[in-house]
Amino acid sequence: MTSTTPFPPGFLWGGATAANQIEGAYDQGGKGLSIQDVMPKGIAAPPTQEPTPDNLKLEAIDFYHRYADDIALFAEMGFKVFRFSIAWSRIFPLGDEAEPNEEGLAFYDRVLDELEKHGIEPLITLSHYETPLHLARTYDGWRSRKLIGFYEKYVRTVLERYGSRVTYWLTFNEINSVLHAPLLSGGIATPPEELSKGELYQAAHYELVASAAATRIAHEINPDIKVGCMLIAIPVYPLTPDPADALAVQAAQHDNYFFGDIHTRGAYPGYALRFLREQGIELDITDEDRETFTHSVDFVSFSYYMSVCQTGDPAKQAAGEGNILGGVPNPHLPASQWGWQIDPVGLRIIANDFWDRWRKPLFVVENGLGARDELVEVDGVRTVLDDYRIDYLNDHLVQLGEAIEDGVEVLGYTTWGPIDLVSASTAQMSKRYGFIYVDRHDDGSGSLERYRKKSFDWYAQVIASNGASLTRP
User: Fold this and answer.
1) Which of 114, 130, 174, 366 does the annotation list as catalytic?
2) 366 catalytic, yes or no?
3) What is the CATH code for 12-464?
């Protein structure tokens, strides 16, 4: 096409998934249990003792057996990159074994073979809310310093296996969520109400050390590897012009910034040290930890779904729906069917913010709309007429293009859930994100057949035109 586009040549268009939400086969190929196998209702309910039949993630969408066909569909859309995660408990079923599980390693070899066949770049998340269950129950997850060593061994194992085949790696998915969802994000089995702030920040510290260690290991194994951190990105606006609201915004931003600051600058920022001091929190930080922190990431990746407001007025602090990091609803924005406020301009704002702050290339690795889709028949073909998803993604991509025009360096964009998958937050199938409809439902029924939605062809055109086909105001 001759239309101009702000997206640079070689921009990595694609989609993003997580092993626990697509693979299934939780008890096949030598896989051990992960925390996800005992979270049948997502983050909204306490975990169970053993896997239960109503946990959709046990079967998920059966990517474990259907990966070749699914990757072929991604290739049909023209994907340049596919983000997926390695299930830690497929490689080390308990998490603390001496030797890895060869069947698990061989599975990801086959996935990479398929991606190479179609010319799709892999982007691998090392830990995507999938801590081995044994590590959660035996060590209380990332509350224990021992997990650093277990994670380092896992990381070295997969990087030695795949490091010559995979350029882009992410250490932890949405690492800043550990303060708010300790089991999901940190594999911490202790109930949240029993955890002190100090214990949460200590767990965050151990994860941050492990993340920096993974970066060091990757660069030792192959200097050409690019390692990124991964954050939940949520622009925060003051609810009113009251200076107290502005201070509340600053505090909320600092709570998230410090993860990125450590990943990119190699040390705790002053505001974080002040917070810890004033809270009476003394972290277990060694000189070795401080040295490890100096191994900074090559790029910053993030998920973006919504923005929030903050206020210093306790009477107005009504939390919005579905937001793991809290915040107050913005009266000027519409919301999705799950209460997530829709703010395309916020993507431009946060991209500029992160670029100005860290001067590291950015990668938008999650963005999408969860909605209730209806499968219909059009001219004898089963599909979903998801214009609402097209509108959502179009408007966000236009704003990402604006950020690139502003001078922000963006490596790529992977929409969340290019194929319908089990929701992390609610464990539902009815909260659908994909360009590909999967015939599976909240009650576990369905054939698992795949159907192209209307957005499938739309996204294919966006990729083919490198964003020139987007509808701009």
Assistant:
1) 366
2) yes
3) 3.20.20.80
